[in-house]
Automatic annotation (TrEMBL):
Compositional bias (Low complexity): 103-115, 1255-1265
Domain Chorein N-terminal intervals: 1-1378
Polar residues composition-biased segments: 1003-1023
Region annotation (Disordered) ranges: 96-133, 973-1023, 1244-1299
Keywords: Transport
UniProt entry tagged with the keyword Transport: yes
Name of the featured protein: Vacuolar protein sorting-associated protein 13B isoform X6
PANTHER family: INTERMEMBRANE LIPID TRANSFER PROTEIN VPS13B, VACUOLAR PROTEIN SORTING-ASSOCIATED PROTEIN 13B
Protein source organism: Cottoperca gobio (Frogmouth)
Gene name of the encoded protein: vps13b
C-alpha cells in the first residue's frame, strides 16, 4: 500500500521530464528498490515551458539516473536519487531580441497557450492515483518523513551556453542535498514540536566555469584559463513552520557560504565576460526575451514586483504595470507589460511554494511536489499569509585576476596552439555579504556589503617589468586601490545573524525576528550601522508596497476591467555608502587600467537592444479630475542615495609613460604604435604626487517609477500643477564637502609626506533635473526640459612658483610619452624647495600667490525653443604672501587683484585726499550675466539671442612681487638621473599658440638647465635625442591636413561669428578697471581691510614718505548696446523676454559703444600726484550688414563693416619725474620680459633638452620627427580687422612665411578671399589734442618751463573695397606754446612762440 503512494510520485516526475520511458518497466524496477536508467534524453520543450526562460535548449542528456528506495527502512533511511553526468546546452531564444518590439513571437505564444491549456488537466491527472482512498494518518506521517529526507546527488553536471563566438560552460563535479540536525550534521529528521524546523544542506564540490571563443565552424581553437576553477561552496536551508500540519513554511532561509572565490579573466575573455553581463542586464530590464503572454482569464492582471535581486540596478526594479492610476486604460495604452513580462524576482518568487512544500489546493495530491509551471501569477490563490524568505550569499575572500595572453605554438604541426597567460592586475575583496529579505510582493529588501576591498598590480605590463618577483617591491607599493577594513579588525561581522553564525537565533533554537516595516527598517539599518558591520561598501535596497485604504494589498491584486484599482503606494529607496577610499594612480596602475579598457573594447558585438525613438501615442481620453487628484496625493518614485566617506585620490608623476599606444585605441583609432624597447624599470623615489581629498560626497537621484504612464497623463493636461511637473523630472542633487587638493611626495619608505595644500578645503553643490520622455513635451515651450544650478560659496588656489613648476612636471609626465619609455629626471633642489622640512630655512623665501572666488552661482535652463543661462560671481581676489625672512618679521600681504572695487572716483587723483568709504559687505556682485540662445530649428522666425553682462569695478596692482613669483628658479644643484642615457624633460606643459588649433613647433627651453638639468654630457643627449622624442598622448592631425584646413576653419569661424551676432541683443556694462603699476612692492598695511588695493595705495600715499612711484591707468567704463534695446537688469529669471526682440538678420546693428573716464596719472613720493592723461572718452557706432553671394555655391557671405568713432578732447601732461617713472617701469618690465623669454616661461617650450653647447642659445632646434611648423602667431584669427595684432613680434630665429609684417591690405584681402567679400569703412573724429611738457629750468631752479602743443579738428577715415583702399587724414590747426612759470607768479609769458598752420592731407591710392 505504501508503494501505491510513493511510486506515482516518483514516476510522474521521471516520466514528465524524460523521453521514451516505459512506465511498466520503471514501475517494476522501482518496486525492486533500485532503478538504473541510462542514456536518457530530456524533454526540452517541457523544460522551456516550465522555466519560462528566454533560452532554448539545444540538447539535454542524462548519462545515468539511479533511484534507490529502501522500502524496508523508509522510516530511518533516505530515498537517494543520483544523476551521473547531466549535460545541457542552451542558446538565446531565436527572435528574443525582437520580442519586446513585436509583442509575442509565434514561439512564445504557442508555448504560453499550450502551458495554459495543459495546466489544469495535468493537475487532475496527478491527483488521480489518490482518489479512491485517503492514506491513513500514520502513512501521512511516514510519507512526510520520506519527502523531508530525500537525498539528491548529482555527479558531473555540465551546462553550456553558446552565442556568437562565446561558449560559456559550467561544470560541477558533484552536488549533494541532504537533511541535517541542529548542528548541521547529516541525520534523518522530521518536523517536530515545539521547534517545527527542518534543516537541509547542499554541498557543491569543484565548480568550474570556463569562457572560451569558438571559430566560424564552431570549434574552440585554444582554451582559455577557467574563469573559476574547482570552487566549492555549501548552502544551508532552514525552514520554520507555524504548526506541524503546515504545508508551506512561515520562514525560509537559504544561505550559501564560499570560503574562497578566485576568478580569472584574460584579455580575450574580458569582452565575452562583459557581453554576458550585458545579456543579464538586458534580460533583467526586459529589453530582450520574456514571453509576451496575453491577459489572464481574470482580466487585466497587474503584476507588482517584489524588487530586484541584482545589485546596483537603477531602472525597472519595480513592476512594469502600475496600480497608481484609477483607470486601467490610462496606462495599458502605453504598452503596459502583461502577465508574462515580469521581473526575474517575481518569476523566482513564484517558485518558492514549489520548492518548499506541496500545495494546499488539492488535498488528494498532498504529497505530490508542485509543478513549477502551474503556479498562477495572481496572489489570490496563495495561502493567506506569504512566507518570509531570506536568501544570503557569503564569501570570506574573493579575488578577480586580470591576465594578458600570448599564443605559443607547439613543435608538432598538428598539435593545438597553447595560450600562455600573464597576471597583471588583481582585485581582492574580503567579507562579502549579499542578503535578500522578502515577504510576498509587498516587501523586498536587498543588502550588499564588503568588509574590505583592494586592487594591486602584478608582474609587468607592456614590457615594463615593474612588479616582477626579482624587483623586491613591497606589497604596499603594488596596492593602488584600498577601501574599508580587514577581517582581522572587523571579525566575522559580515556573517551576523546568518545560518553560518553560531550566535544567530536559528543556531540557538530561537525563532528569528524580521523587520518588515519601512519606518523600523530605516531606523535599524542606517548608514552608520552598515559601515560598522562592513566598512568598505554597504548597499540597502528597499521596496515596499502599501495600499492607503489599510487593507491587505493582496486582496486587490487581481482586478477586473470594471473595478476600481485601490491607491497602492509603492516606494523604492536605494542607499549606497562607500567607506574610506584610497586610490593611488601611478604609472603601473594607470597603464593596467587603460589596458583593460582597450581589451574590453576589442570586439565587434552588436548591442542587444538599440535605443528606440520615443513615439508619442495619442491619448485615448483626458484624465478625470479624480485621477488627477489621486496623482496629486502620491506618485511612486525611485530614490537612490550615494554617500562617499573620506575619499583620497593620489596622482603620482608618471614613472613611465606609454599612453601613446593606448589612448588612440580608446579614442576610436584602430591602430596605435607599439611600445619600443623598454629600459629596465627603476622606481622613482621620492615620487612627487598630487593628492585630492574629500571628506564627504552626497548624491541623490530621484526618478518617477512609471515614467511613460505618468508623462503621457500629465503632458495631456492643459495646465498641470507644479507638483505633477516636478515628478515628471529626474532630479539629481550633488553635494561635496571638504574637497581639497595639494602636493605630496612618496618617500623611499613608501609613505606619503603631509599634504601641502594647493586648493584649501571647500564645499560645493550641484542640482539638476531632466524631463522624462522629452518627445511628449516638444510642443510645450513653457516646460523646462533641463535645469542645472551650481553653487560655490568659496574657492581658493594658492601656490608658490616652485609648486607650480612641480605641478607642470607632473602634468607633462602624463601628457607626453617617451617613445623608449625613459623616465623623467627632476631637480633635487626643486623637490627640496617644495617639500622643505619645518625647520629648514630657504635662502630667499619665495612668495605664495593666492587667488579666491566667492559666491559663484550658475543656472542653466533648456526649453523646447530656447537655452538660457545666468550667473553671478560675488568677488575675486588675488594676492601674494611673502613669508617673513627672519625673527620678528611678519608675513607681508600684497594685494594684486580686487573685485568688486569702487572705481568710480579713481579716474581723478583727488580721491586720495577725500574720505573713502570702506568696501561694503553688501557690494553688488562682481559679475552678473544672463544669456538666452534660441534652439536651432527649421523655423528661423524665432527671436535672436540675448546677452546681458554687467561687470563691476576691478582694481589691479601689477606689483613687482608678481615678477618675483614668475621668475623664481630653483637653485642649481645635482639632479637625479633615473636611467642611463635618459633625457630630461622640461617641466611644464606648453600653451599652444595655434591658427585654428594648428599645432605649432615648440622651441627648446633654456629653462631645462635650471630645474630639470642632467649631468649627461652633450654628446649623450645628442645621440639619444632620436630615441627620446616626446610624443603627445592624444593623437594630432598631421601638419599637411592642418595647414590645408586652416583656410576652411577661417571660413567657418567668420560664418559662426556672424551667425552669433547677426540677431544678437547685446547689453554690456563694464565699470572702470583701475590698474596700479608701482616700481616697488606695495604690501597692504595691517590697519586696512585685507586685499583692498585703493585703500593700500591711499595708506601709502599719506603715511609713507618713501612711497614707490606708481603709474595709475584707469581703464574706461565701457557700455555696448544693440539697436533699439532698452536697459534691463543683467540678472534675469530664466527664461526672460526682451522688450524688442530681434527677428531679422542684421536688425541688431548698429551697436552703440561708449567709453568714458579713461585716464592716466602718476603717484610720486611726498604726496605728489601728477596727471598724465586727463579723463577722456569716446562714442562709437558699429554697423555690419551681410548678404549671401549669388555666384558662390558654398553660401559665403559678403560683409560691409562701418565704424564711426567720436573722441572727446585729449589732454596729455608730462614732466621729468613722470618720464623717469615710466622709464624705470619700462626698464623693469622689459628686463622681466626678456628673462621670461630666456627661461622659456612665455615661449613655446619643448620636452627636447637644450641644444649642444656650441649652438647659439636662440637658434631653434627642430624636432627630428619632421612635424615642426613655423610660428604663425601674426595670423591670429582673433586679430582685429582694422589694427595690427598685439604681440605680433616673432621670436628670434623664426624665419617662417609669416615672419614679415602683415599689412592691413594683405590681411583684409586674405579675409575677403576666405569668406567672400569684405568692405570696410572706418572714421575717427577728434576735436582737440593738447600735449603739455613740464621741465625745471636748469638756470633757475625756482622756474618751471612748459611747452604746450595743440592740434584741433582731427579726423581720419579708411575705406577698403575690393578694388581700392582709400585713407583720408585731416588736421584743422596745429599750435605750439612755450611758457615759463615762477613760484611767485601764476604764469609769466617769457618766450612766446606760436606757429599756426593748416595742414590738410588727402591721400588716395587706387
Amino acid at each position: 500500500m505504501l508503494e501505491s503512494y510513493v511510486t506515482p510520485l516518483l514516476m510522474s516526475y521521471v516520466n514528465k521530464y524524460i523521453k521514451n520511458l516505459k512506465p511498466s518497466d520503471l514501475q517494476l524496477s522501482l518496486w525492486g528498490g533500485d532503478v538504473v536508467l541510462s542514456k536518457l534524453d530530456l524533454k526540452l520543450d517541457v523544460l522551456e515551458q516550465e522555466l519560462k526562460l528566454p533560452f532554448t535548449f539545444m540538447s539535454g542528456h542524462i548519462h545515468e539516473l539511479r533511484i534507490h528506495v529502501p522500502w524496508t527502512k523508509l522510516g530511518s533511511e533516505p530515498v537517494v536519487i543520483t544523476i551521473n553526468t547531466m549535460e545541457c546546452i542552451l542558446k538565446l531564444r531565436d527572435g528574443a531580441q525582437d520580442d519586446h518590439e513585436s509583442g509575442s513571437s509565434s514561439t512564445s505564444r504557442s508555448v504560453s497557450d499550450s502551458s495554459k491549456a495543459v495546466a489544469k488537466p495535468r493537475r487532475l491527472q496527478q491527483a488521480a492515483p489518490s482518489d479512491p482512498d485517503l492514506p491513513p494518518g500514520y502513512v501521512q506521517s511516514l510519507i512526510r518523513r520520506v519527502v523531508n529526507n530525500v537525498n539528491i546527488v548529482v555527479n558531473n553536471l555540465i551546462l553550456k551556453y553558446v552565442e556568437d563566438d562565446i561558449v560559456l560552460s559550467v561544470n560541477i563535479t558533484s552536488a549533494e542535498c541532504y537533511t541535517v540536525e541542529d548542528i548541521w550534521e547529516r541525520a534523518f529528521m522530521d518536523i517536530t514540536a515545539p521547534e517545527l524546523v527542518l534543516r537541509k544542506v547542499i554541498n557543491f564540490a569543484d565548480c568550474t566555469v570556463c569562457l572560451d571563443k569558438r571559430n566560424a565552424s564552431g570549434k574552440i581553437e585554444f582554451y582559455q584559463d577557467p574563469l573559476l576553477y574547482k570552487c566549492s561552496f555549501r548552502t544551508r536551508l532552514h525552514f520554520t513552520y507555524d504548526n506541524i500540519n503546515s504545508k508551506i513554511p512561515s520562514v525560509i532561509k537559504i544561505q550559501t557560504m564560499v570560503e574562497s572565490l578566485k576568478l580569472s579573466i584574460t584579455d580575450q575573455q574580458l569582452p565575452m565576460f562583459i557581453r554576458i553581463l550585458e545579456l543579464i542586464i538586458a534580460l533583467y530590464y526586459g529589453e530582450i526575451g520574456g514571453h509576451k503572454e496575453g491577459e489572464g482569464e481574470d482580466g487585466s492582471v497587474h503584476v507588482r514586483e517584489a524588487g530586484a535581486i541584482l545589485p546596483g540596478m537603477d531602472e525597472d526594479m519595480e513592476s512594469q504595470g502600475t496600480s497608481q492610476y484609477s483607470s486601467p486604460d490610462l496606462y495599458m495604452e502605453s504598452g503596459c507589460p502583461e502577465e508574462g513580462d515580469q521581473s526575474w524576482v517575481t518569476w523566482a518568487w513564484s517558485f518558492v511554494p514549489a520548492i518548499v512544500d506541496p500545495e494546499e489546493e488539492f488535498e488528494e495530491g498532498l504529497y505530490q511536489q508542485r509543478e513549477t509551471g502551474d503556479i498562477p501569477n495572481n496572489p489570490q490563490q496563495h495561502t493567506p499569509k506569504d512566507p518570509i524568505v531570506s536568501i544570503g550569499f557569503y564569501c570570506t575572500k574573493a579575488s578577480v585576476t586580470f591576465k594578458l595572453t600570448e599564443t605559443q605554438s607547439e613543435s608538432s604541426y598538428y598539435s593545438p596552439q597553447k595560450v600562455k597567460s600573464r597576471e597583471v592586475l588583481s582585485l581582492e575583496q574580503e567579507g562579502i555579504t549579499i542578503e535578500v529579505l522578502m515577504m510576498g510582493e509587498p516587501f523586498f529588501d536587498c543588502q550588499i556589503g564588503f568588509v574590505g576591498c583592494r586592487a594591486l598590480c602584478l608582474k609587468g605590463i607592456m614590457g615594463v617589468r615593474d612588479f616582477e618577483e626579482n624587483m623586491n617591491r613591497r606589497e604596499e607599493d603594488a596596492v593602488f586601490f584600498s577601501c574599508g577594513d580587514s577581517l582581522k579588525s572587523k571579525g566575522m561581522t559580515y556573517l551576523t545573524n546568518s545560518l553560518f553564525d553560531y550566535r544567530s537565533p536559528e543556531n540557538n533554537g530561537v525563532r528569528a525576528e524580521f523587520i518588515l516595516d519601512t519606518a523600523n527598517h530605516k531606523e535599524t539599518y542606517t548608514e552608520i550601522a552598515g559601515m560598522q558591520r562592513f566598512g568598505a561598501f554597504y548597499m540597502d535596497y528597499l521596496y515596499t508596497m502599501e495600499n492607503s485604504s489599510g487593507k491587505d494589498s493582496q486582496e486587490f491584486s487581481v482586478v477586473s476591467m470594471e473595478e476600481v484599482v485601490p491607491a497602492i503606494q509603492e516606494t523604492s529607496i536605494k542607499r549606497l555608502v562607500v567607506g574610506p577610499l584610497d586610490v593611488r594612480l601611478h604609472s603601473s596602475a594607470v597603464h593596467r587600467i587603460l589596458k583593460m579598457v582597450t581589451c574590453a573594447m576589442d570586439h565587434e558585438y552588436e548591442p542587444y537592444c538599440k535605443p528606440q525613438r520615443e513615439m508619442v501615442e495619442e491619448s485615448h481620453g483626458a484624465a478625470t479630475p479624480e485621477e488627477i487628484s489621486s496623482l496629486e496625493e502620491f506618485i511612486p518614485t525611485r530614490l537612490t542615495c550615494l554617500t562617499l566617506l573620506s575619499v583620497s585620490v593620489t596622482v603620482s608623476m608618471a614613472e613611465f609613460n606609454l599612453l601613446h599606444t593606448l589612448m588612440p585605441v580608446i579614442m576610436g583609432c584602430k591602430t596605435a604604435p607599439g611600445p619600443g624597447n623598454m629600459p629596465v624599470f627603476q622606481p622613482v623615489r621620492p615620487l612627487p604626487s598630487v593628492q585630492f581629498q574629500v571628506e564627504r560626497v552626497n548624491v541623490e537621484h530621484t526618478v518617477p517609477m512609471y515614467a511613460p504612464e505618468l508623462v503621457s497623463t500629465v503632458s495631456s493636461l492643459s495646465q498641470p500643477s507644479d507638483n505633477l511637473l516636478h515628478h515628471c523630472n529626474a532630479h539629481l542633487y550633488l553635494k561635496v564637502f571638504g574637497f581639497q587638493a595639494g602636493l605630496t611626495c612618496q618617500d623611499s619608505t613608501g609613505g606619503f609626506l603631509p599634504l601641502i595644500p594647493i586648493i584649501p578645503s571647500f564645499s560645493t553643490a550641484l542640482y539638476g533635473k531632466l524631463i522624462q520622455m522629452p518627445a511628449y513635451w516638444s510642443k510645450r515651450s513653457s516646460v523646462p526640459t533641463t535645469e542645472c544650478i551650481f553653487e560655490l560659496p568659496h574657492f581658493t588656489v594658492q601656490a608658490t612658483r616652485a609648486q607650480t613648476l612641480l605641478l607642470q612636471a607632473i602634468c607633462q609626465s602624463w601628457t607626453h610619452s617617451m617613445v623608449n619609455g625613459a623616465p623623467l629626471t627632476l631637480s633635487e633642489s626643486l623637490l627640496r624647495e617644495v617639500y622643505k622640512g619645518p625647520g629648514v630655512k630657504s635662502p630667499g623665501p619665495s612668495p605664495t600667490l593666492e587667488g579666491s572666488v566667492q559666491n559663484l552661482e550658475l543656472k542653466f535652463c533648456s526649453r523646447a525653443t530656447v537655452k538660457c543661462a545666468s550667473g553671478t560671481v560675488g568677488a575675486v581676489k588675488v594676492c601674494a604672501r611673502t613669508p617673513g625672512s627672519g625673527e620678528g618679521v611678519k608675513e607681508k600681504l600684497v594685494p594684486l587683484i580686487q573685485g568688486p572695487s569702487d572705481t568710480k572716483e579713481l579716474h581723478m587723483s583727488r580721491w586720495l585726499n577725500e574720505i573713502r568709504k570702506p568696501e561694503s559687505l553688501l557690494a553688488p556682485d562682481l559679475l552678473a550675466f544672463s544669456v538666452q540662445v534660441p534652439q536651432q530649428e527649421d523655423d528661423c522666425r524665432n527671436s535672436g539671442a540675448v546677452l546681458l553682462v554687467s561687470v563691476q569695478g576691478i582694481a589691479v596692482n601689477v606689483d613687482p612681487v608678481f615678477c618675483t613669483w614668475l621668475l623664481y628658479q630653483p637653485h642649481r644643484g645635482s639632479s637625479r638621473q633615473q636611467a642611463p642615457g635618459s633625457v630630461p624633460l622640461a617641466k611644464r606643459r606648453e600653451d599652444e599658440v595655434s591658427v585654428g588649433s594648428t599645432p605649432l613647433a615648440k622651441q627648446p627651453s633654456n629653462q631645462a638647465s635650471d630645474y630639470a638639468s642632467s649631468p649627461v654630457k652633450t654628446k649623450t643627449v645628442t645621440e639619444s635625442r632620436p630615441l627620446s622624442i616626446p610624443m603627445k598622448v592624444m593623437p594630432d592631425t598631421t601638419a599637411e591636413e592642418s595647414w590645408a584646413s586652416s583656410e576652411e576653419r577661417m571660413k567657418e569661424l567668420i560664418a559662426q561669428a556672424w551667425d552669433a551676432v547677426k540677431r544678437l541683443t547685446l547689453q554690456l556694462e563694464l565699470q572702470s578697471c583701475c590698474v596700479f603699476l608701482p616700481n616697488d612692492s606695495l604690501p597692504s598695511p595691517s590697519t586696512i581691510i585685507c586685499g583692498d588695493i585703493p585703500g593700500t595705495v591711499r595708506s601709502w600715499y599719506h603715511n609713507q614718505a618713501s612711497m614707490p612711484g606708481t603709474l595709475v591707468v584707469c581703464l574706461p567704463q565701457i557700455s555696448v548696446l544693440s539697436a533699439g534695446h532698452k536697459y534691463m537688469e543683467p540678472l534675469q529669471e530664466l527664461p526672460f523676454v526682451v522688450s524688442k526682440p530681434i527677428l531679422e538678420e542684421g536688425d541688431a546693428f548698429p551697436w552703440t559703444v561708449s567709453l568714458s573716464q579713461f585716464s592716466v596719472y602718476t603717484l610720486l613720493g611726498q604726496q605728489q600726484s601728477l596727471s598724465l592723461l586727463e579723463p577722456m572718452g569716446c562714442t562709437s557706432t558699429l554697423a555690419v550688414t551681410s548678404h549671401k553671394l549669388q555666384s558662390c555655391s558654398e553660401g559665403r557671405h559678403s560683409f560691409i563693416v562701418c565704424l564711426h568713432v567720436d573722441l572727446q578732447p585729449v589732454h596729455v601732461k608730462c614732466s621729468n619725474p613722470q618720464v623717469q617713472l615710466l622709464y624705470e617701469l619700462l626698464l623693469s618690465w622689459s628686463s622681466t620680459w626678456a628673462r621670461l623669454q630666456r627661461h622659456g616661461i612665455l615661449r613655446q617650450t619643448s620636452s627636447i633638452p637644450e641644444p649642444p653647447a656650441g649652438a647659439a642659445p636662440s637658434s631653434p632646434v627642430r624636432s627630428s620627427a619632421g612635424t615642426a611648423l613655423p610660428d604663425t602667431s601674426t595670423c591670429s584669427p582673433s586679430a582685429d580687422f582694422g589694427s595690427p595684432t598685439e604681440g605680433d613680434s616673432v621670436p628670434a630665429g623664426d624665419d617662417g612665411p609669416f615672419a614679415d609684417t602683415v599689412t592691413l591690405e594683405q590681411k583684409t584681402n586674405s579675409i575677403g578671399g576666405t569668406s567672400g567679400k569684405v568692405s570696410l569703412w572706418m572714421q575717427w573724429m577728434l576735436p582737440k589734442v593738447t600735449v603739455k611738457l613740464f621741465a625745471p629750468d636748469l638756470t633757475d631752479k625756482k622756474t618751471e618751463i612748459c611747452v604746450i602743443g595743440e592740434l584741433e579738428d582731427l579726423s581720419a577715415s579708411v575705406d577698403v573695397q575690393d578694388v581700392y583702399t582709400k585713407i583720408k587724414c585731416k588736421v584743422g590747426s596745429f599750435n605750439i606754446d612755450h611758457h615759463r612759470c615762477r613760484s611767485f607768479l601764476l604764469l609769466m609769458d617769457g618766450h612766446n612762440k606760436k606757429w599756426k598752420s593748416n595742414v590738410k592731407n588727402n591721400y588716395a591710392s587706387h
